[in-house]
Amino acid sequence: MENDLGHELTRAVLTTADTFLREGQRLFRRHGLTAAQYNVLSLLATGPADGMSQRELGDLLVVDRSNVTGLVDRMEKAGWVRRADDPQDRRVYRVQLTAAGRRLWSEVAPLYAQVVAQVTAALSESQARATLKVLHKLQEGAVAWELPE
After folding, report:
1. Position 64 pLDDT exceeds 80
2. Which of 10, 88, 97, 101 is the most exposed place for a label (fewest CB within 10 A)?
């Protein structure tokens, strides 16, 4: 691929991601949430009944474990999640939704689904699938690159 085209593609992907984050805040802010907090609520609401460890959340959110700790601390203080001891490993806490967290997710998730439908309405199913394949290839390339000498 031509280097200029690669730069343009990379810039477009990053700009799109930044736009999604910024515009998503318009929805989440109205509910006292950040995008990261919504993602945690969503993972917990659709995940295992006994919750997830902070490490599992970090892996799925693709953020540093120390960032997950602060995120969960703030969400616990807001009353949306709680930490419970893991019966298999005393060093691990399971993060679980509280009733208030589930109510908040149930309120925001349908609104988020409506926004996603609006954003993707101009794409056919085949365009969406092709875009996903391209994005996965870009993710693989981002992970596999080697430092030039």
Report:
1. no
2. 88
